[in-house]
Structure formats: structure tokens, C-alpha cells
Amino acid sequence: MAALTRGTRLFRASLVFHLKGLAQSSFFLVIGVITPVVLATIAFYLFQSGGQSESLLYAALGAGLMGIWSTTLFGSGGAIQWQRWQGTLELLIAAPVPFIVVLVPLTLATAAYGLVSLVSTLLWGRILFGIRLELVHPVLFVIAVPSAVIGLGLLGLLLASTFVLYRNANALSNLLGEPVWLITGMLVPISLLPGWVTPLSWVLAPTWGIRAIRESALGGDPLPAILMCLGLGVAYMLIAAVCLRHFERLARTRATLALT
Amino acid sequence: MTGLRIFFIGGGISYRALFNWISPWHYIPTMLGGTLFVLLFFTYLGRYTDVEDESFFVVGNAVYISSISCVYGSIMAIANERFYGTLSPLLATPANRLALFAGRALPYIANGILVSAYGFAMSSLLLDFDPPASSLGPLAIVVTAGAVSCTAFGMFLGSIGLRARDVFFIGNLAYYVLLLFTGANVPIEVLPGWMEEVSSFLPLTHAIAAAREVVAGAPFSSVAGLTGEELLVGACYGVAAYALFRLFEAEARRRASLERI
């Protein structure tokens, strides 16, 4: 019981700490607010000109989730590398709690910070394009959004635990933004893409995250997508746990923890 | 002669020293991989929204992606001197400032052209983009004008970096402003009047319009005006960039604030 209380306290404190850190960063302001708003604006104009004005909420939600993916990708992808540069990695590894317990709130914070993207694109759409947030399933929407955040945050955990093996993790983050926007159907339906992309999209939480959010907002059955998002999150966490254990063992054996 | 050495050799050395993405491990994912997916993403979005034909988006984005080198690279070429602490020794030299400044732009212009050419080539492979052979020469000229102008814009932002604390914030902002305002994805006439006005003062707007025309089969003579306007925009940013560079240099000497980050 005491361990659970300690774990909860650590989780909460760490989540708040990292959220505060992200809120101070101008880089995250750009990728969390400005980029999604620009993308939403492009999408709004394109949908409007293409005679699809009814799809503007579809575009706002998609652009919002693109922002969540960007903050997760850049925040989580280089998380371990960043701790290494700061000189805090050794302290975190040496802490009595397992390293993954320290890392989960960090990656979830990067996804949770992305919620500002969703709020920004919805507000932007409301103010400039008069898009109303009329939800078909409001209760399920309230469940779908945190589920998407959890799914993406745990995908971030997997990125953090695997990117650590790659010295130029930032470059991988630069590479993986748009492909995931594209193949998870955030703005472009997956059915428009080549057939081989579809199975690839199934193993990515953002696919189910955006489906859950859209179907709860615009109509449909979001529950399977919510469950898939959370299920994939659990799978990512299990794989990340194995990767992190491997990384930690190697780093201790070779005394390379602090080496960049 | 010394000026030419500073322009060419100095420019090359500064590129090797200051361009953060020069190693293949960075260059390939960022300059080639990331830009290809920008192009694919917006082309598929265009295909879905059916606002224009596919070549509108291919050409717009293939020209636009040169900005990753021209904007970010040029910022690095100037602002990184301050970041790495080499600005003081550099400015202590008697080197010709114009040669020192302009020489830095050259590698990023070449890089920008390369990235655009790669974008067009990949579009031919992956998206059935098939421009007429006669358009390739004029297209190369237009793309070069766009890269020159965009690099001048990047140098302008880089000069601000001699003073501003977080120039990469400005760079990131500029990269996305160009995406929206230059007509790379949204036809300019669809944008509100004030955005249309702003777009004509930004680099790449005229180059993208000219590139679309030549790909549609227009001869270079019909886009010479647009190309000239693109170069004029670039020249204005270039002059402003150099003036800012000299101003901040003089001010930093006066206030002893050169290394203040």
C-alpha cells in the first residue's frame, strides 16, 4: 500500500514537473501551438475551397492530434539523451524506483502537453472559421481524448527506450513527424494511401487515437478505437520495459551511462 | 583576391563548422527524409481535398522544402558563431565583412537547390509527376532564384540571432509561416487579402508561382517577371540582413555585449 502511495506521488510530482518544464520551452510552443494552428489553417482553407465545409471539425481535430504527436515525438524521442546531457541520467538510474517508473510520467507529460494543440486548433477554428464543437458522444469524447494521450505517451515511452541506442535521436525525430501524420489518417484517410500502409497504421496508437476522438465527436462507435489505443499502450510499455532493462544492463556493464 | 578566398574558402569552412545537420546521420533523415514526407503529406492532402491538380502540390512543396536548408541553415551560419563562442575572434579579424557574410550563404543555396531537385525527382518516382523535358531548364532557374531569395531571408533571421536570445524560435516560426503564406499548399487567391499582401513580400511565393507555370509548359520568358520579383525580394532581405549584421556588430562592440547569450 505504501509503495502504491509512493508510486502515485512520484507519478504526480514527475508529471507536473515535466509539464512545467515543457511550458517554459519556446520550441514546444512552436510545435505544440503554432505548427498545429498553421496546419489547421491550411487544412481549413483546403477543405473549404474543396467544398467540404462540413469537414472543418474533422480537420481541427486532426491538426490537434498532429500537434500531440509532435510534442510526444520531440519530447519523448530524445528524453534519455536529454537527461544524459543534463547530467541527471545517473541519478535517475540510481534512484530506488525502477527507471521505467521515472520515465513514464515524462513521456506522458509530453503527450499531455500536446493537449494545448487540440485546444488551440479548436479555438482557432471557432474564432476564425466559426467551427462549433458539437459532440455526438460527449461522454465518450471525454474518455477518448485521455485515451489518445495515454496511447501516444506510451508510444513515446517506446521511442525513448529505443532511440537511446541511436546517437542522433533528434534526427530521427525530424524524420518521423510527417510519416506518422500521413499513415495514421490524421488529415488524409488511410484508404487513399497504398494498401501496404494499412497494416502498418494498425500498430500505431495515433491511428486509433484520432479514430476514437473523431468517432466520439462526429459520430460512430469510438469504443473499439479507445480500447485499441489503450491496448497498444500496454503493449508499448511491455516492449519498452524490456528495452530499458537491456539498456540499463549494458550501460552498467560497459560503464557508458554518461557517454553521449 | 583575399575577398574571394574569404567568400569561397571561408564560406566552405563555416559550413563545415556551423551546419548542425552536416553529418549523414543528420542530413539524410532531416534534409532528405523529413522533406520527402512533407511533400508526400501535403500532396496526399491535396489529392484528398481536390482543390487543385496534383502537380500544384508537388511543385509547391518541392520548391518549399528548399527552405529547410535556406532558413535553418542560414540561421545556423550566423547565429551559431555566437552560440559556439567563436563570434568574437571572427569579428576581431580585419576580413572583408561583405565577403565573410555573403560567402556563408553559398553552401545553403546549393543545399536548397539540391533538396528541391531531390523533391522533384522523388515526385517523379513516387507520384507520377511528369513535367515536360523543356520545362527542366527554366525550372532550375526558378528554383535557384527561390533558394537565393530564401537564403537571404534566412541570413536576415540569422542576423537577428546576433541580438535575439532564441533565434531558432524565430526560425521555426518562419518555416511554418512560409508553408502557409507562400501558396505552397493553399492557392494565394483563397487566402484573405492581408495574407495575400504579406505573401508578396516573402521569399518563395513568386518562385512557386513561376515554377507552376513552367511545369505547365510556359516558356521562361513568361515567368521572367516573377523570377525577377523573387530575386528582388531576396535582394531586399539580403541588404537588410547585411545592414543588421553590421549594426549589431557595431552595437555589440560599443556595449561589449558580443558574447552575451
Layout of SSEs?
The complex is a heterodimer of chains A (260) and B (261).
Chain A: H1 2-23, H2 26-49, H3 56-77, H4 79-86, H5 89-94, H6 99-113, H7 115-129, H8 138-163, H9 169-183, H10 197-202, H11 205-218, H12 223-254
Helix pairs in contact in A: 1-6, 2-3, 2-7, 3-6, 3-7, 3-8, 3-9, 3-11, 6-8, 8-11, 8-12, 11-12
Chain B: H1 2-18, H2 24-49, H3 54-64, H4 67-83, H5 87-92, H6 97-126, H7 136-160, H8 167-181, H9 193-199, H10 205-215, H11 220-255
Helix pairs in contact in B: 1-6, 2-3, 2-6, 3-6, 3-10, 4-6, 4-7, 4-8, 6-7, 7-10, 7-11, 10-11
Describe this structure in words.
The complex is a heterodimer of chains A (260) and B (261). Chain A has 260 residues and is an all-alpha fold. Chain A is built from twelve helices and no strands. Chain A has helices at 2-23, 26-49, 56-77, 79-86, 89-94, 99-113, 115-129, 138-163, 169-183, 197-202, 205-218, 223-254. The longest helix of chain A has 32 residues, at 223-254. The radius of gyration of chain B is 19 Å and the shape is elongated. The relative contact order of chain B is 0.14. Chain B contains eleven helices and no strands. In chain B, helix 10 packs antiparallel against helix 11. Chain B is mainly α. Chain A binds chain B through residues 26-27, 29-31, 34-35, 38, 41-43, 45-50, 52, 167-168, 170-172, 174-175, 177-179, 181-182, 187-189, 192-193, and chain B through 21, 23, 25-26, 28-30, 33-34, 37-38, 40-42, 44-51, 166, 168-169, 172-173, 176-177, 179-180, 185-187, 190-191.
